[in-house]
Amino acid sequence: MGAQIHGTLEFNAEKRKDIRFSEEALKEIEKIKSRYPQGKQKSALIPVLHIAQAENDGWLSPEVMDYVASLLNIQPIEVFEVASFYTMFNLKPVGKCVIEVCRTSSCWLLGAEDIIKYIEKKLGIKEGQTTPDGMFTLKTVECLGSCGTAPVMQVGASYHENLTFEKVDKILDKYRAEGRRRNYTDLDYENTK
Amino acid sequence: MGRKLLLAHENVPGIDRLDVYRAHGGYASVEKALKSMKPEDVVEEVKKSGLRGRGGAGFPTGLKWSFLAKPEGVPRYLVCNADESEPGTFKDRYLMEKIPHSLIEGMIVSSYALGSNTSYIYIRGEYFYVSRILEKAIQEAYEAGWLGKNILGTDYSLDLYVQVGAGAYICGEETALIESLEGKRGNPRIKPPFPAVAGLWGCPTVVNNVETIAAVAPIINMGGEEYAKIGIGKSTGTKLISASGHINKPGVYEIELGLPVEEFIYSDQYCGGIRNGKKLKAVVAGGSSVPILPADLILKTAKGEPRLMTYESLFDGGFQSGTMLGSGGFIVMDEDTSIVKNLWNFTRFYHHESCGQCSPCREGTGWMEKILHKFLEGTANLSDIDLLWDIQSKIEGKTICPLGDAAAWPVASAIRHFKQEFEEIAKSKKFKDVSHYERLHKPAMA
Ligand SMILES: Cc1cc2nc3c(=O)[nH]c(=O)nc-3n(C[C@H](O)[C@H](O)[C@H](O)COP(=O)(O)O)c2cc1C
Ligand code: FES
Question: Fewer CB under 10 Å: which end of chain B, C or N?
């Protein structure tokens, strides 16, 4: 959460000028803004940040946050203080697929620790790191609300449940073969039970 | 035992679609409420039903609704709490994914009762795909005239929106949820004022859990008095229990309140007993925040009476020997589980999720996590047990929101009931854990 943000943000005013979201994204943002009463458009911030992150290779750069501020008519600091509070927003570049393995109690009771170690070994990275080819970032997260089908991991919008080493192999190999970015906002989620 | 009100049609193919849902009696409560009842009548039925909030605190829903301020010319809001982040809890996800229209139906009737013309479902960001399922169902409901202007030709209109969060347990706390819905950090507000007076955008607001709102539909259909006949005493109706951990049949079960805990754990209809023929060691009965109980105390109260799945029976004995129904997140641990390591896991969770506003919670959860980690490293001393006790006692009741209590109770109860485990590690300077994965997949070897 907020307290765990380190380092400084480097804002590049030149780059900010290049930020452009897709037509679809801008349309979606307008739709979201219409859900609130007049003058309360700041309420759209979190949903809009999800879209912004998907539009910007899975992370929120200072320039993107600045751009979002302009879309909602709020100060950039209002965007940053929110972006830095919520765990689903990345303030640094990430791989195309962010693997988020649940580490909380029920998953731990059914072997999440071993699943995390297995993925670390398979990908040759530690928790928090990204593979050199930029394909995967490995994260551990708190309870995903899937404790009855533990252990569990989330990749983009998709839930992968009842994990075993074999299942992890199959799932990650498939993502690698497809090679595309996965976002929370994807419509084509593919849950595996 | 075993009546189902929320999950009666869970296995009907296509029940997530409006036509199938309708064919199984869906939206009947909307017709009944909007055509033949005044909003106050709906509130009255909910009062009679004895329904208590299913989000964790168990506060009577009808009473909560009656607190809603109604100043002239000020909009009122109903916000559904679908943040579901309490470890061990996954029932709301199940309900929304399987039968999304049941929540929408409940939202319409409840919004009508409260006089809300714009309502929101705030759902945790991780459930993004569930938000798509809900949005699709909402779209269907609009097209069929269950939402929008002049529903069923009455002068009642309702717009319903889904709002996603972005990963923060604290946003399940109702005032943090409201802050988050307003586009801010999830910092709980100081109360009073309560949301019923000044909630979303400063307007009177009711926040209710997904399951609470879904339960309003069957209550209106059957009548509050009939609903109140299910259950025992002040624990009326049915409850969704999320069962996880070392059991044969994890999953979401709808139980009639009053079911004996022993039956819930061992009957094949529910959890189906402990995996691999192991013995039961402990249960966290209502989500990570409630006190953990050892096997003997979860099955029977200190007085030797069978423990029942009710708010009262689980709390029997207070925190000395009891626990709470909470969110119904029922986590079962077998004989090989380290209570100390589980506690460290929980404490790391609370440390990670503390919003940081209140020093006792922000600092205290971190200290407890560190001290517990010393046990895992085998470097803890006996005095560390007293230190843990001291810290938790100085968090409880000293924070703006109950996250502090939720972080303190697991620590207090683990020490209360399993002190020996802490002492053994502190004396021997050794900690040994099992590989839960190996035990699961190669039980013969482990
Ligand atoms: C830290 C914390 C987390 C909470 N998380 C949730 C949650 O995920 N879902 C929920 O319904 N209630 C949660 N609550 C309880 C809410 O504050 C609130 O009491 C509840 O939504 C009221 O609805 P109900 O009366 O229908 O239960 C949480 C409370 C706290 C203190
Ligand atoms: S503990 Fe892993 S999903 Fe709940």
Answer: N
Q: Which helix (H) or strand (E) holds A138?
A: strand A136-141
Q: Locate B149 and state its tokens.
A: 């202007």
CA dihedral B176, B179, B184, B186 (to 10 degrees): 0
For residue B121, the number of C-alpha atoms closer than 13 Å in the C-beta half-sphere is 35
Whose structure tokens read 């030797």? Answer: B304
User: Which residues of chain B are within 8 Å of residue A128 when distances are taken between CB atoms?
Assistant: none
| Tokens describing residue A58 | 């899975």
Cβ contacts of B424-427, under 8 Å, gap ≥ 24? B425/B340, B425/B375, B425/B378, B425/B380, B426/B375, B426/B380, B426/B381, B426/B382, B426/B384, B426/B385, B427/B382
ipTM for this model: 0.96
pLDDT for A17? 79
Among B369, B443, B314, which Cα is nearest to A111's? B443
A146: nearest Cα among A114, A112, A102, A108: A102
pTM of the model: 0.97
Q: What is the pLDDT of residues B365-418, one digit of tens each?
A: 999 999 999 999 999 999 999 999 999 999 999 999 999 999 999 999 999 999
Strand A97-102, strand A153-155: pairing:
antiparallel
Closest CA to B405 of B419, B420, B394: B394
Q: How many CA atoms lie within 13 A of B41 on its CB side?
A: 11
pLDDT, tens digit, 9 for 90 and up, residues B136-170: 999 999 999 999 999 999 999 999 999 999 999 99
CA closest to B178 among chain A residues: A43
* Spatial separation of the C-alpha atoms in residues B419 and B413, rounded to whole Å: 9
CB–CB of B108/B67 below 8 Å?
no
> In B76-181, which ranges are continuous DSSP H helix?
91-98, 100-114, 128-143, 174-181
Nearest to B79 by CA among B47, B45, B123: B123
Check residue B228 and report its DSSP letter.
H
Pairing of strands B238-245, B329-334: parallel
**d(CA A58, ligand 2 centre) in Å:** 24
Q: Which atom of ligand 2 is nearest to the CA of A146?
A: 3
